[in-house]
């Protein structure tokens, strides 16, 4: 992944802070909840004071800042906010392997400005891009401060009844049916052997297809949990062994973000 040739200076006593700013989980959902339903006032107040951002998507970040501005006055008008988007390569390939040098994005912090890192929903750098920016901040001596807000993976795990002492988030399972079924069986084998809960997600329009593959591929006594629409008024969390799932009226729609978990 290519980056500009400009090399940032090292941190100084006047270096700003990189805040990891969570976003509500209603992005892309039909229902938009009041921010104070899931976001602490302290987080929103800090976010309102930031005018330099590294973001996943500038358009959704501006929409979020508009919502924040309805509760706390923004330090600068939205059109004057400085937004830098992570490159598309980071979205497609991920930025957790060290292949992307994000230091150039942090020039404002080196100049003394408070900065925010934000994704479209939940905590940046957790099941979302941003880890390269956090890593670069540490390498440059910039203080990193995670702010409080919703993290769908942990909410789903807490509601699953599965092992919360040992768990792994494995991202997306393959879209191709045969590869998806094989991956699910591999994750199940690991979960049953070690007791480690396996957590994964899917693009919402594949929710129903993934659920059907899970019910067809998992052993009857494996526990399957789903958490849909977390923090929304229509949130649903279900957990049972597979043989019982097949006799319950639980269904997923293909528009609501869902977290899937399996274990014993």
Give a brief description:
With 264 residues, the protein is an alpha/beta fold. 30% of the residues lie in helices and 19% in strands. About 2% of the residues have low confidence.
Notes on the protein architecture:
The chain is α/β, with parallel strands linked by helices. The chain has 2 domains: 17-146, Tetrapyrrole methylase, N-terminal domain (Cobalt-precorrin-4 Transmethylase, domain 1, 3-Layer(aba) Sandwich); 152-263, 2-Layer Sandwich (Methyltransferase, Cobalt-precorrin-4 Transmethylase, Domain 2). The chain has helices at residues 41-48, 58-69, 88-93, 107-110, 131-140, 152-158, 177-194, 207-217, 242-245; strands spanning 17-20, 52-55, 82-85, 115-118, 143-146, 167-172, 197-201, 223-228, 236-241, 258-263. The strands form 2 sheets. Strands 3-2-4-1-5 form a 5-stranded parallel β-sheet, with helices on one face. Strands 6-7-10-8-9 form a 5-stranded mixed β-sheet. Helix 7 links the parallel strand 6 and strand 7. Helix 7 crosses helix 8 (207-217). The radius of gyration is 20 Å and the shape is globular. Mean pLDDT is 92; it is low at 4-9.
């Amino acid at each position: 992944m290519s980056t500009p040739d400009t090399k940032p200076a090292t941190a100084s006593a006047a270096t700003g802070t990189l805040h990891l700013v969570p976003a509500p989980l209603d992005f892309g959902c039909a229902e938009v909840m009041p921010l104070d339903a899931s976001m602490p006032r302290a987080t929103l107040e800090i976010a309102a004071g930031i005018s330099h951002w590294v973001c996943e998507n500038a358009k959704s970040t501006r929409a979020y800042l508009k919502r924040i501005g309805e509760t706390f006055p923004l330090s600068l008008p939205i059109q004057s906010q400085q937004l830098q988007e992570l490159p598309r390569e980071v979205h497609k390939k991920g930025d957790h392997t060290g292949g992307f040098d994000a230091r150039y994005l942090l020039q404002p912090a080196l100049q003394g400005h408070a900065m925010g890192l934000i994704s479209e929903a939940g905590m940046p750098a957790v099941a979302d891009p941003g880890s390269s920016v956090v890593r670069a901040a540490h390498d440059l001596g910039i203080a990193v401060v995670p702010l409080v807000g919703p993290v769908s993976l942990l909410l789903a795990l807490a509601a699953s009844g599965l092992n919360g002492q040992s768990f792994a988030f494995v991202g997306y399972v393959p879209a191709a049916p045969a590869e998806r079924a094989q991956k699910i069986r591999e994750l199940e084998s690991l979960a049953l052997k070690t007791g480690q809960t396996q957590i994964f997600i899917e693009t919402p329009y594949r929710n129903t297809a993934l659920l059907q593959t899970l019910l067809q591929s998992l052993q009857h006594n494996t526990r399957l949990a789903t958490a849909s629409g977390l923090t929304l008024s229509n949130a649903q969390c279900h957990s049972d062994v597979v043989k019982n799932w097949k006799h319950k009226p639980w269904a997923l729609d293909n528009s609501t973000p869902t977290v899937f978990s399996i274990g014993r």
